[in-house]
Amino acid sequence: MVGLNNNRGLIKLGLSICTLLITGNNSALAKQEKKGGKEKKVAIVAPVKQKKSDDSDDAIIAANKKLQSKLEAENALNRALLEKKLSAVIAKIEELRIKKECQRLGKEIEDENLRKKHDHEMLVLNMEKERLTMELELEKARFTKQMMEHDVALAMLDKKIQLEKGQVQLLQEQSHRKKAEIEALQAESERGKYITKKPIYLKDPLDKRSNTLILSDRCIDLNGHITPWKANYIVDQIHYFNNKNGDYPIFIVIGDSPGGSIMAGWNILQAIEHSKAPVYVVVKTYAGSMAALITTLATKSYAYPNALILHHQPLSCVWGNLRETKEHYEFLNTIWKRSGGRVAKKMGISLVAFEKKLYEKSMYGDWREYANNAQKLKWVDYVINSIQHSAVSSLPDPNSYTCEKYIKEQYGYNTTKETEQSEAAQYYQLAPYDFDYSYNFNRKNQMIGNVAKQASH
C-alpha cells in the first residue's frame, strides 16, 4: 500500500509539471498578442494614411499567427518530451509497484508458511501435553493408591509403636525407681566417705602433750626427684597459701625424696626463707641430698623417729683437659660451700669438720641418720610421734595407691613405656650449670649417669 501511494504521488507530480508548462506557453502567447494590440493601438493614433494602417494590421496579425504557430509547435514538442518522460516515470513506477507487490506476496507466503509451521508445532505440543497430562493423572492415581496403602500400614505401625511405647514407659518407670533406689544407696555410701569437719589451723601446730603434729589443708607434697618444674609448682603453692592467709603455717611434707637439682632446691629454699607465713618441713620416711638440705635449713622441721635423713657432697664426673677439670672442680666447690656450708653453720662446726665427718661415716661421704640422732645434729628440729591430718575429709581412693603411681611420683617413670626415661634423666641432659644433688644407692650407675650428663653439657 505504501508503494502504491508513492507511485500515485509521482504521477500527480508529472501531471502538475505538464500543466505548468502548458500554462506558461499560453501566458507567453497572450502577452505577445497584448503587445501586438498595443502596437496596433499606437499605430492607429499615428497620423498615417488609412491604407497603410490596414497593411500594418495584416502584418501584425500574420506575425501573431506565425508566433502562435511557433509556440504551438514548441508546446507540442515540450508536451511530447514531457509525455515521454512521464511514460518513463510511469514505467518506473509500475516496475516498483510490481516489485513491491512481489515482495508483499513473498512476505504473505512466508508468513503463511510460518503460521502453518507454528500451527503444526502447537498441535504437536498440545498432543504431547495431553499425553503427559494423562500419564500424570495415571501416576497420581497410582501414588494416591500407594499413599492409602502406606497410611494403612503407618496406622498399624503407629498402633504397634504406641503399644510398645507404653511397655517401654512402664519398664522405664520401673528402671527409674530402681535407679533412684541405687542412687540413694550410693549417695548414702558416698556420704559415709566424707566428713564435714573443718581443718584445724594453729600457729603452733605441735601438740606437746601427745607430741603430735597437727596439719591443716595448707600442705604441699614433695616426693621423688626435685626437678625445676616440681620446684616451680611448690613455690607457686607457697605464694598461693601466703595470699590466702599470711599467719598460719605452710607444710612441705616429704614422703620419700632422694634429692635432685641444686638449682631447683635453692628455688624452694628461697621461697621458704622469704615466705610471709612460716613454712615447716615434715619428713615421714626419707629425705636425702637436696631434700635433706631443705629439711635442715627450713624455718622448722619435723620428722618421724624412723625417718632417714642423708647428707653428702654433690657428685659429678668430668672429662676434658686439666684446665676444664680444674674449672669444673672450682665451680662444684663453690656450690658445696653455698649448700654444705650452711648445714655446717647450723650444726655449729666448720665446713672442713663437716666434710671430715661425712667421710668418717662412709667411704662415699654419705652420712645418714635416723631422725632422733639427726635432731641432735640439728638436721631436724623436732621428732614427733604422730601426725594428725585435720584436712583429710574423704575416704582415700585405693586407685591412688598403686605401684605404677608410686613409681611415677618417685622416679618419673611411666611403667607402660619400657623405653621411657625418667623425668630427672630427661632434665639433666638439658640443664646447663646444674648438678644432680641426689642419692642413688647404686653408686656405679650414678657415676656412669653423671659421666653421660657432663658429656652432654
Give an overview in words:
- Helix 3 (228-244) runs parallel beside helix 4 (262-273) and helix 4 (262-273) runs parallel beside helix 5.
- The protein starts with a helix and ends with a helix.
- The chain has two domains: 2-121, no CATH class; 206-456, 2-enoyl-CoA Hydratase, Chain A, domain 1.
- Residues 33-50, 444-448 and 451-457 have low confidence and may be disordered.
- It is elongated, with a radius of gyration of 68 Å.
- Helix content is 65%, strand content 11%.
- With 457 residues, the chain is an alpha/beta fold.
- Strand 1 (206-207) and strand 2 form a beta hairpin.
- It is built from eleven helices and twelve strands.
- The strands form three sheets. Strands 3, 4, 6, 7, 8, 9 and 10 form a seven-stranded mixed β-sheet that branches.
- It has helices spanning 2-45, 50-191, 228-244, 262-273, 290-297, 322-347, 351-361, 371-376, 403-411, 423-428, 443-456; strands at residues 206-207, 212-215, 219-222, 250-257, 259-261, 279-288, 300-303, 308-311, 367-370, 382-383, 386-389, 436-438.
